[in-house]
Specification:
single chain; 330 residues; alpha/beta; Rossmann fold; 2 domains; five-stranded parallel sheet; four-stranded parallel sheet; 36% helix; binds N-carbamoyl-L-aspartate
């Protein structure tokens, strides 16, 4: 099926080869060719970082990092990306405690204040749609979505796809297994969108009943032309997968009546034994991290486990590339 670029909210635009000044709110803004633009620049950024080359690419620019939710990798890699490119950061973690948000300032006002001090704003927030709202509030600078509730996490997908591309040399005709909290994992919601931009991809979905994609969501994703196959037991994992992508149960997004411990007991955990039984020798195992009941540490030594190796490092390279592109310095 031919992939048609999805309709976007009027506030954000398809990239269509021109990143300069664009907000990055959803993976739906990208075409396959836009992704490859990021990847080819990310490869150059990787060299720059590996050789610790001083860079002036973002010299004179300030990027605000406004994180209303906890973060290690996304915050750290964005901060490091700006600094490696010679730019400066304005870092605000927990604005609800340390900024005027605690005095009752509105979200829009907060965005407009930090917009006045910076050249781009990276936002993480617990409310789905907050990144779009910020993009609408910010008049002059681009906003990058660093995760909005259980909705999307587009820059995570840039690094996940870059990791797959580096490994397999292609992003089409791949078979993957995604597992864990399909209902709430924003990284997965963006990843499925991303893999739908390429032909012939199949994804097996493994989750307990409560954590599956809602039927309407599943149907909407399938309309993009990607093959999605729900399975309910590890015994149904095909041995031919190119990659596995595990996600933790998003405890902070469960409903009041949900039994977290019960769901944890139902969660399939990656162990050396599971890999031995179901994984092919040349697959790779990804996890956006943090891993909480997702992957047993004894798996870390397996060369197929890339989550603490290339996957995490690629986060900085793709963010360096994306910032250079949207700030017009590529
Ligand atoms: C993810 C997130 O915040 O959505 N973490 C990340 O950015 N790498 C995954 C998670 O929190 O489970």
């Amino acid at each position: 099926m031919q992939y048609v670029l999805p309709r976007l909210n009027d506030a954000v635009a398809h990239i269509q080869g021109d990143f300069h000044g664009k907000d990055i709110v959803s993976l739906d803004q990208f075409s396959a060719s836009d992704l490859h633009t990021v990847f080819s620049l990310a490869r150059q950024m990787k060299q720059l970082a590996l050789y610790n080359e001083p860079s002036h690419i973002l010299e004179g620019l300030v990027v605000a990092l406004l994180f209303f939710e906890p973060s290690s990798r996304t915050f750290g890699s964005f901060a490091a990306a700006v600094k490696r490119l010679g730019g400066q950061t304005l870092e605000i973690q927990n604005p609800e405690i340390v900024s005027s948000v605690s005095k009752g300032e509105s979200f829009e006002d907060t965005i407009r204040v930090f917009e006045a001090y910076s050249n781009a704003l990276v936002l993480r927030h617990s409310v789905p749609g907050a990144a779009l709202q910020a993009a609408q509030a910010a008049e002059f600078i681009p906003v990058i979505n660093a995760g909005d509730g259980n909705n999307e996490h587009p820059t995570q997908t840039l690094l996940d796809l870059f990791t797959l591309y580096e490994q397999f040399g292609r992003l089409d005709y791949l078979t993957g297994l995604v597992a864990g909290d399909l209902a709430n994992s924003r990284t997965l919601h963006s990843l499925i969108r991303g893999l739908s931009l390429f032909r012939g991809n199949t994804i097996y979905l493994l989750a307990s009943e409560r954590l599956r994609l809602a039927p309407a969501e599943l149907a909407a994703f399938e309309e993009r032309g990607i093959r999605l196959i729900e399975i309910s037991s590890e015994k149904d994992i095909p041995k031919t997968c190119n990659f596995w992508y595990w996600t933790r149960i998003q405890r902070e997004r469960l409903a009041a009546g949900d039994d977290y411990q019960g769901l944890m007991r139902e969660q399939v955990i990656v162990t050396p034994q599971l890999l031995k039984e179901y994984a092919s020798p040349d697959m790779i195992l990804l996890d956006p991290l943090p891993r909480v009941g997702t992957i047993d540490p004894s798996v870390d030594a397996d060369p197929r486990a890339v989550y603490l190796r290339s996957q995490i490092r690629n986060g900085m390279y793709v963010r360096m590339a994306l910032l250079a592109l949207i700030l017009g310095r590529a």
